[in-house]
């Protein structure tokens, strides 16, 4: 279902700029409401199908690890992936996949929200928000995960947490941009403006 959300994002990338360029702000806001709602539905369906199949998915994505299990140097890594009880903070790949459903859910929404901001030409905000999330969220959380939790699950969550947060930030900004456009469309003598100026 994530592929369908990518298709939704392409629709937004193709249709969104045309609507904004024609100052059809009401239609653009409607398009974004529909596309975000569809991406939420696709994300929820994806997460619902993933959660009951965690063991199978973890096994599928970890097949390559089995190839390395026959070498002495890789046995520790293999044991860390598939067995528990080896350390205070250990977690298996099966534990890590519990967070995977949330990541897929956020990814479906993120691609559509990002495409909506592309249509608004809000590149400066996207760059600032991404840099801020990298510095304030990703780096500290990664260091905490690496030195205090020492588990694959903690490292995975640290690596995907920025995209979860950016999903919320981009949705907020997209909603704000749509509100500003709607206000401009109701003004007499409206003129063309990019969202970067708002």
Automatic annotation (TrEMBL):
Please indicate which superkingdom the organism of origin belongs to: Eukaryota
* Keywords associated with the record: Membrane, Transmembrane, Transmembrane helix
Give the transmembrane ranges.
30-51, 99-120, 132-149, 155-174
* Designated name of the protein: HERC2 protein
User: Which organism encodes this protein?
Assistant: Symbiodinium necroappetens
The record's gene field reads HERC2
């Amino acid at each position: 279902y994530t592929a369908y959300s990518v298709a939704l994002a392409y629709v937004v990338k193709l249709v969104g700029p045309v609507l904004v360029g024609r100052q059809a702000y009401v239609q653009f806001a409607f398009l974004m409401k529909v596309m975000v709602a569809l991406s939420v539905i696709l994300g929820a369906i994806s997460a619902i199908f993933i959660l009951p199949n965690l063991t199978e998915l973890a096994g599928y994505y970890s097949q390559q690890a089995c190839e390395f299990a026959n070498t002495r140097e890789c046995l520790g890594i293999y044991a860390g992936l598939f067995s528990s009880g080896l350390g205070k903070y250990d977690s298996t790949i099966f534990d890590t996949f519990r967070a995977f459903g949330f990541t897929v859910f956020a990814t479906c929404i993120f691609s559509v929200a990002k495409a909506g901001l592309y249509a608004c030409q809000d590149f400066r905000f996207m760059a600032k928000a991404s840099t801020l999330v990298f510095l304030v969220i990703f780096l500290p959380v990664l260091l905490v995960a690496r030195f205090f939790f020492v588990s694959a699950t903690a490292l995975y969550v640290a690596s995907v947490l920025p995209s979860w947060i950016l999903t919320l930030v981009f949705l907020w900004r997209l909603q704000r941009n749509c509100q500003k456009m709607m206000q401009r469309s109701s003004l007499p003598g409206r003129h063309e403006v990019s969202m970067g100026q708002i």
